[in-house]
Amino acid sequence: MLTHLDSQGRANMVDVTDKAVTSREAVAEARVRMRPETLQMIVDGEHPKGDVFAVARIAGIQAAKKTSDLIPLCHPLLLTSVKVELSAEGTDAVRIQARCKLAGQTGVEMEALTAASVAALTIYDMCKAVDRGMVIEAVRLLEKQGGKSGHFKAGESR
């Protein structure tokens, strides 16, 4: 049984030594709501701090690689792929989608969620001088494949 508790009820890192190495992939998303003029400035490439999407993409990728340094009891993983896609959604939001892959003994859900979250925080940081009312929302796991627990897709019942 996998648990973060040892026999004395203390928190510890799950032992995955005996788990098989399998291909694993996770996709997470986040949204940043903002004023339409803020989004337009980003899309038009007119933000005074530079290319907001490029910086957020790099921040998300770096965060995925450092997830075990940020989330207690999270395994350090050798990710084989991290992709962070950003796009305008409607007139007042940026949608962030992060996809992480590896061949390993444990999943990459936390890495994908961390990548999406940090990309959203980076957008907030870069744009807060022009729009302090931005809202980061809807951080969630969209899909997970591989491993013992099988396939998960948001919105589908199991």
TrEMBL record:
<feature type="binding site">
    <location>
        <begin position="110"/>
        <end position="111"/>
    </location>
    <ligand>
        <name>substrate</name>
    </ligand>
</feature>
<keyword id="KW-0501">Molybdenum cofactor biosynthesis</keyword>
<dbReference type="InterPro" id="IPR050105">
    <property type="entry name" value="MoCo_biosynth_MoaA/MoaC"/>
</dbReference>
<comment type="function">
    <text>Catalyzes the conversion of (8S)-3',8-cyclo-7,8-dihydroguanosine 5'-triphosphate to cyclic pyranopterin monophosphate (cPMP).</text>
</comment>
<protein>
    <recommendedName>
        <fullName>Cyclic pyranopterin monophosphate synthase</fullName>
        <ecNumber>4.6.1.17</ecNumber>
    </recommendedName>
</protein>
<dbReference type="InterPro" id="IPR023045">
    <property type="entry name" value="MoaC"/>
</dbReference>
<dbReference type="GO" id="GO:0006777">
    <property type="term" value="P:Mo-molybdopterin cofactor biosynthetic process"/>
</dbReference>
<keyword id="KW-0456">Lyase</keyword>
<dbReference type="InterPro" id="IPR047594">
    <property type="entry name" value="MoaC_bact/euk"/>
</dbReference>
<feature type="active site">
    <location>
        <position position="125"/>
    </location>
</feature>
<comment type="pathway">
    <text>Cofactor biosynthesis; molybdopterin biosynthesis.</text>
</comment>
<comment type="subunit">
    <text>Homohexamer; trimer of dimers.</text>
</comment>
<dbReference type="InterPro" id="IPR002820">
    <property type="entry name" value="Mopterin_CF_biosynth-C_dom"/>
</dbReference>
<dbReference type="Pfam" id="PF01967">
    <property type="entry name" value="MoaC"/>
</dbReference>
<dbReference type="GO" id="GO:0061799">
    <property type="term" value="F:cyclic pyranopterin monophosphate synthase activity"/>
</dbReference>
<feature type="binding site">
    <location>
        <begin position="73"/>
        <end position="75"/>
    </location>
    <ligand>
        <name>substrate</name>
    </ligand>
</feature>
<dbReference type="InterPro" id="IPR036522">
    <property type="entry name" value="MoaC_sf"/>
</dbReference>
<feature type="domain" description="Molybdopterin cofactor biosynthesis C (MoaC)">
    <location>
        <begin position="13"/>
        <end position="147"/>
    </location>
</feature>
<comment type="similarity">
    <text>Belongs to the MoaC family.</text>
</comment>
